[in-house]
C-alpha cells in the first residue's frame, strides 16, 4: 500500500515536471477592473491546459502606451474597445483576434451616505467628494462623466470630483471613506457587503465594452492563443458573469 | 511662459508653491530636530534618527497608503479637517504639504545634523565662557556656522518635493489647480498620449534637476574652500 502511494506520488511528480516542459507562458496585461476574475480564470486555465498566464494589472491607457513601446505582453485585456482597436491600427496587434470579453457595469457606491436611489443622491449632492477614474484615461471614468451629464448634474458636481488614476484607485478612495461617494465597477464590489450602491442604468452611458486582443508578440505563442480561446469558453464566461459583467 | 495653456503652467505654479511651503515648514521643524540629534546623548537618539530616515527607504506606495488612511475620516487628518467642517485632508493642498514634509524630512534633517555635528563642542564652550546663554549661543554661533548645512537641506528638500510623485498620486485625487502637480500632470499627459505637453513639463524637470545638482556641487566646493 505504501509502495503504491509512493509510486503514485512519484508519477505525479514526474508529470508535474514534464508538464511545464511542453506548457507555455503568456504575459497578459489586464485592465485593473478585471483583476479578480482574471485571477480566477488564470488559475482555471492553468489547471485545464497546463499553460501559465502571468497577469500584469494596471490602467488600460498606461498599457497601451507601453504596448506601443514594445512592452513584453502577448495578450491585452483592455477596459475599453478603443485601445485594442488602436493597437491593431498601429500594427501592434492581430486584427481578427479582437473580441468583447466582458461588458462592464458602472455602480455608484458609498460607505457614508445612502445612495440606494443614486439619481436622487447625485441630484441632492450631500457629499463633499465624489471619486471617479480619470475620464480621459479610464473607460469607467468616461462612463461616470457621461452618466452625470445624462442626469444633468455634472456641472454642479464638478468641483467635488476627485480622480483616481485607475478604477482601482477610485475604489480605494471610497473604500477608505476619503470620498463619500464614487463611481466604481460592479466587479470590484464582488463580495463587498459594506455601504450602499446603485447600479447605473445602462442607458445613461455608452456601453463599457471591454475588448481583448492578441498582440503581435504573441502571434506564435501557443499559450497566448490558448488563453484567448479559453477566455471565450463557457468556464471563463461563467466566472466573468459571476463577477457582475454582462456578456455579448 | 505666458504662451503655455493653463494645464501646463497651473501645475508648475502649484509645484513651486508646494515645494516652497514644504521647505519653509521643514526648516522650522528639521532644525531643532537636527540640533537634538546632533547634541543629545539620549539612548533612543539613533532610533529616532532611523524613524526620520524611513521615508528614504520606504517606497512611496507605503507612505501613500498610510497617509491615505491617516489623512482620512478614520485617522488624525480627519479630526483636524473637522475643525473647519471638512471630512478628510486627502485631496487637499494641506494634505500634500503634510505628505511632502514627511517624505522630504530626511533630506533636510541629515545635512543640518551633519553641519551641527561638525561644529563640535569647542565654539559653544567658548561662547559659554563669554557668558552667552545656550539659547544665544545657538542663534549667534551654532546656526551661522551650520548655515551651509541649512542651505543644502533647503535645496534638497525643495528638489525632493518637486520630484515627489508616488505619494501625491496616492493622496492627491488629481484635482487641477489644487493637487495636480508637475509630476502627476506629466503622468497624465503620458497616459493620455499627449506627448507634446509631457515633453514640455518633463524637459523642464530635467533642466531643473540638473540646475539643482550642479548648484549643490558648486556650493559644496565654495564652502570647502571657505573652510580651508
Q: What's the short story on this structure?
A:
The complex is a heterodimer of chains A (248) and B (228). By secondary structure, chain A is an alpha/beta fold.
Report what the structure shows:
The complex is a heterodimer of chains A (about 250) and B (about 230). Chain A has about 250 residues and is of the alpha/beta class. Chain A folds into 2 domains: about 25-105 and about 210-240, 3-Layer(aba) Sandwich (D-Maltodextrin-Binding Protein, domain 2), CATH 3.40.190.10; about 105-200, D-Maltodextrin-Binding Protein, domain 2. Chain A has helices at about 1-20, 35-50, 60-65, 80-90, 120-125, 140-150, 155, 165-175, 220-230, 235-240; strands at about 25-30, 50-60, 75, 100-105, 105-110, 130-135, 160-165, 180-185, 195-200, 210-215. In chain A, the strands form 2 sheets. Chain A has a 5-stranded mixed β-sheet with strand order 2-1-3-10-4, sandwiched between helices. The radius of gyration of chain A is 21 Å and the shape is elongated. Chain A starts with a helix and ends in a 6-residue tail after the last helix. Residues about 15-20 of chain A have low confidence and may be disordered. The model of chain B has no long low-confidence stretch (mean pLDDT about 90). Chain B has a single domain, classed as MetI-like (MetI-like fold), CATH 1.10.3720. Chain B has about 230 residues and is mainly alpha-helical.
How many runs of DSSP E, i.e. beta strands of chain A? 10
Task: Report helical residue fraction of chain B.
Answer: over 70%
Q: Flag low-confidence runs of chain A.
A: 14-21
CATH level-four homologous superfamily name of chain B:
MetI-like
Shape of chain A: elongated
CATH superfamily of the largest domain in chain A: Periplasmic binding protein-like II
In the CATH hierarchy, what is the class of chain B?
Mainly Alpha
Tally the helices of chain A.
Answer: 10
Architecture of the largest domain in chain A in CATH?
3-Layer(aba) Sandwich
Amino acid at each position: 500500500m505504501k509502495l503504491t502511494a509512493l509510486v503514485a506520488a512519484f508519477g505525479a511528480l514526474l508529470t508535474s515536471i514534464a508538464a511545464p516542459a511542453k506548457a507555455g507562458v503568456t504575459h497578459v496585461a489586464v485592465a485593473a477592473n478585471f483583476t479578480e476574475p482574471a485571477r480566477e480564470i488564470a488559475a482555471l486555465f492553468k489547471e485545464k491546459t497546463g499553460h501559465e498566464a502571468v497577469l500584469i494589472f494596471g490602467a488600460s491607457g498606461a498599457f497601451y502606451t507601453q504596448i506601443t513601446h514594445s512592452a513584453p505582453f502577448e495578450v491585452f485585456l483592455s477596459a475599453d474597445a478603443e485601445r485594442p482597436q488602436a493597437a491593431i491600427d498601429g500594427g501592434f496587434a492581430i486584427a481578427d483576434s479582437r473580441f468583447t470579453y466582458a461588458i462592464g457595469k458602472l455602480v455608484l457606491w458609498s460607505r457614508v451616505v445612502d445612495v440606494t436611489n443614486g439619481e436622487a443622491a447625485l441630484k441632492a449632492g450631500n457629499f463633499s467628494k465624489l471619486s471617479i477614474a480619470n475620464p480621459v484615461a479610464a473607460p469607467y471614468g468616461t462612463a461616470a462623466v457621461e452618466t452625470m451629464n445624462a442626469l444633468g448634474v455634472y456641472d454642479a458636481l464638478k468641483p467635488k470630483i476627485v480622480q483616481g488614476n485607475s478604477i482601482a484607485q477610485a475604489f480605494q478612495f471610497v473604500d477608505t471613506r476619503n470620498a463619500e461617494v464614487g463611481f466604481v465597477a460592479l466587479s470590484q464590489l464582488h463580495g463587498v457587503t459594506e455601504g450602499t450602491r446603485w447600479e447605473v442604468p445602462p442607458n445613461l452611458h455608452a456601453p463599457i465594452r471591454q475588448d481583448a486582443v492578441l498582440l503581435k508578440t504573441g502571434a506564435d505563442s501557443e499559450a497566448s492563443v490558448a488563453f484567448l480561446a479559453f477566455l471565450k469558453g463557457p468556464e471563463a464566461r461563467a466566472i466573468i458573469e459571476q463577477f457582475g459583467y454582462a456578456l455579448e | 511662459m505666458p504662451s503655455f495653456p493653463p494645464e501646463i503652467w497651473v501645475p508648475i505654479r502649484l509645484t513651486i508653491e508646494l515645494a516652497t511651503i514644504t521647505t519653509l515648514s521643514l526648516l522650522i521643524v528639521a532644525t531643532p530636530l537636527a540640533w537634538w540629534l546632533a547634541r543629545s546623548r539620549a539612548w533612543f537618539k539613533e532610533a529616532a534618527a532611523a524613524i526620520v530616515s524611513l521615508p528614504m527607504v520606504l517606497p512611496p506606495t507605503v507612505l501613500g497608503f498610510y497617509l491615505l488612511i491617516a489623512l482620512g475620516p478614520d485617522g488624525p487628518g480627519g479630526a483636524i479637517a473637522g475643525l473647519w467642517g471638512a471630512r478628510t485632508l486627502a485631496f487637499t493642498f494641506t494634505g500634500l504639504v503634510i505628505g511632502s514634509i514627511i517624505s522630504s524630512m530626511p533630506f533636510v534633517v541629515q545635512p543640518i545634523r551633519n553641519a551641527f555635528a561638525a561644529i563640535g563642542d569647542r565654539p559653544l564652550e567658548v561662547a559659554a565662557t563669554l557668558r552667552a546663554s545656550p539659547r544665544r549661543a545657538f542663534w549667534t554661533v551654532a546656526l551661522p556656522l551650520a548655515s551651509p548645512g541649512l542651505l543644502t537641506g533647503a535645496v534638497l528638500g525643495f528638489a525632493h518635493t518637486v520630484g515627489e510623485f508616488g505619494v501625491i498620486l496616492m493622496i492627491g485625487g488629481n484635482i487641477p489647480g489644487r493637487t495636480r502637480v508637475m509630476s502627476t500632470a506629466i503622468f497624465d499627459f503620458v497616459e493620455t498620449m499627449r506627448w507634446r505637453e509631457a515633453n514640455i513639463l518633463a524637459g523642464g524637470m530635467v533642466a531643473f534637476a540638473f540646475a539643482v545638482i550642479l548648484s549643490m556641487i558648486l556650493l559644496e566646493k565654495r564652502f570647502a574652500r571657505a573652510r580651508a
